[in-house]
Each structure stands twice: as C-alpha cells, then as structure tokens.
Design goal:
flat; single chain; 18 strands; Nucleotidyltransferase, domain 5; 26% strand; 36% helix; 347 residues; Actin, Chain A, domain 4; alpha+beta
Length: 347
C-alpha cells in the first residue's frame, strides 16, 4: 500500500446519542457518545466522547457538558465540527502524513431539511473531509441490517436512535416512502425522569434514566412487570439524597407514549406503501435497528399491532454505520446523483 495519494474513506453515523466511524477496509473503528465538554470561560474543548459523558451531572460551573446534536440534526455547529474533527483524527491515526483527505459518507435523518443537510456537509468538510456525501439514515440502516435494498423487492426498516425514529420502505436502491419522527431513545429517558419526579418527588439524571430503561424498561408490562430496581436521586422536598425502589410495570407505563408514537409512525408508513411492496413486507417482515430496538418486547408489540413478523437486526447499534461504510463501495453512485436516498422517491 503506497503512502502517496492514498486516501482512507470513512463512513460516519453522526447520531444524537453516539457517533460511530467506519474505516473502509477495517470496519467500525470507533463508537463514542456525541458529547463534548467545553470550558465556559475560554470556549476550549476539555473532553470529547466517553470522558465527556462521564462528566454529565458531575461537572463544575466552569465546564459545560453539551450534546451538539439534537433530534438527529446539528444544534451547535462549531462544537459539532470540532467533535467530528476529533473523531476523524482518532479514526485516521494510523494514516500517513502524505495521505489525502478522506471522502466521508455521513448519514442524516430522512426528514432533514436542505439547510440542515448542508450544515452536516459543511461541518464534515470543516472537520477535514475532502468531500462529504449524505445518506439517509434508514437507507444506511437497511444496508447494515443486510436487507436487499438494490433489488425490486420491498424492505421495511425501523431505525430507533437517540433523537429520531426513522421508518422507511426501500426498493431498487431508493426510499419509496418514509417517516421521520423526533421521538426516540432520548424521549424514553425523559419520560422516565418526568415519571419519577412526578410520582416520587425525586430528581434523577440522564445516566440513571438510561440505566433504568436498559435494566427494567419494556414496551409492555408482560415480562419485566415484577422486576424491581433501586435508584438514587435527590429528594425535591428535602434536597437530600434518597433511595427508592421502582418496578418494571411503572417504567413500562412511563414509556407508553413513546412506544405508541413509534407504532403510529410504522402504521402511517405502511398505509402509504404500494400494495406490491406491502405484500413483500408481509412475507419478509419488518426489521428494527438502532439502540431503541433493544427495548424489551418492542418487536413483539409492533408485531401484534401490525400483524406482521418483526425482527431485530443482528447488530442494531452498528447497523447504520455498517451500512454507511458499505455505501462507500457505491460512492460513484452518490457522486453522480447528489442527495440520492436522502429524499423519498415519488411514485
């Protein structure tokens, strides 16, 4: 492998909760939280990723811990660019000094506006990319989950990330119909925080809420209803630390609104699906990906509601970045048709 003119292309899943990087020929090389810690006075970045996430809820007033991505789009442009630069450098640490800048395939929500998409492309270039090509998140997730996206058959993917849930029907290398809702993993955490505050006058942090969701959270109250968990927080009446015990049934109830919103998005997308493709989906089933796909019984609840088979992808947390990375093989296709697969095709 010569050092001159060598370029290592990257696939990036720039998520609300986590950022993953795929290096062509190597696979997924990095998976860290989309979190940045900044010095309030100087504006300098103190930490990125895991080290920044560990500061959440423990940071002094001089350090601000922020998530620069909100609902799948850039909320803080400069911080996002700096975070991407850090991750690109980490992913490319073994490359030669003579290497070219990498081309970057970066995924975006299917419901993104042209302005928001342009911000992602510009931030990628500012972070060190030679060229940046957007790919729709559900399209990337479908490729990563091993669905036959280039064939004349209907495939349905439901990608539940941190900020958005993406539902799409894909055929012949394009999105036929899609819906993107800003209701996903972060909403589940927020629902748990609000429930515990209202029911117990106890304030808990994001990390505790996420832990509760993973341990005793469920899309229905069948399997984990009797499970209990001890949690610590701050008593809003006394201001002192307090420990309480909560049940899986309570958490299932707290998550109900978000689960219902995801089911509604799936049904809405199915209603807009052409009959032939709907028949394909009936045969092949619906595939779930993203961190939210790991919520206990979510596949069963969606299956009960749609009367269709529902499967969780083999590696739901990495489906999007694997698909984004595999799309590097088709980079000429994306160069020839800007914005390919970032917009639903019109019937």
């Amino acid at each position: 492998m010569g050092i001159f003119g060598f370029s290592q292309d990257l696939g990036i899943d720039l998520g609300t909760a986590n950022t993953l990087v795929f290096v062509k020929g190597k696979g997924v090389v990095l998976r860290e939280p989309s979190v940045v810690a900044k010095n309030v006075e100087t504006g300098e970045i103190e930490a990125v990723g895991n080290s920044a996430k560990n500061m959440i809820g423990r940071n002094p007033g001089s350090i601000s811990v922020i998530r620069p991505m909100k609902d799948g789009v850039i909320a803080d442009y400069d911080t996002t660019a700096a975070m991407m630069q850090y991750y690109i450098r980490r992913a490319m640490k073994s490359r030669s000094l003579f290497a070219k800048k990498p081309n970057v395939m970066i995924c975006v929500p299917s419901g993104i506006t042209m302005v928001e998409e342009r911000a992602v492309i510009d931030a990628s270039k500012q972070a060190g990319a030679k060229e940046a090509f957007p790919i729709a998140e559900p399209f990337a997730a479908a490729i990563g989950a091993g669905l036959p996206v280039w064939e004349p058959t209907g495939s349905m993917i439901v990608d539940i990330g941190g900020g958005t849930t993406e539902v799409a029907v894909i055929s012949l290398g394009g999105i036929v119909t899609a819906q993107s809702i800003r209701n996903a993993g972060d909403n589940m955490d927020l629902s748990i925080i609000n429930y515990i505050r209202k029911s117990y006058n106890l304030m808990i942090g994001e990390r505790t809420a996420e832990q509760i969701k993973l341990e005793i959270g469920s899309a229905n109250d069948e399997s984990l209803a009797e499970e209990t968990m001890e949690i610590r927080g701050r008593d809003l009446l006394t201001g002192l630390p307090k420990t309480i015990t909560i049940s899986g049934k309570e958490i299932s109830g707290a998550l109900q609104d978000t689960v219902d919103a995801i089911i509604e998005a799936v049904k809405n997308t199915l209603e807009k699906t052409p009959p032939e493709l709907a028949a394909d989906i009936m045969d092949r089933g619906i595939v779930l990906s993203g961190g939210g796909a790991l919520l206990t019984n979510l596949d069963k609840v969606i299956s009960d509601e749609t009367k269709m088979p529902v499967f969780v992808a083999d590696n739901p947390l990495e489906s999007v970045v694997i698909g984004t990375g595999k799309s590097l093989e088709y980079i000429q296709h994306f160069k020839a048709q800007p914005n390919v697969s970032t917009r639903p095709t019109v019937e």
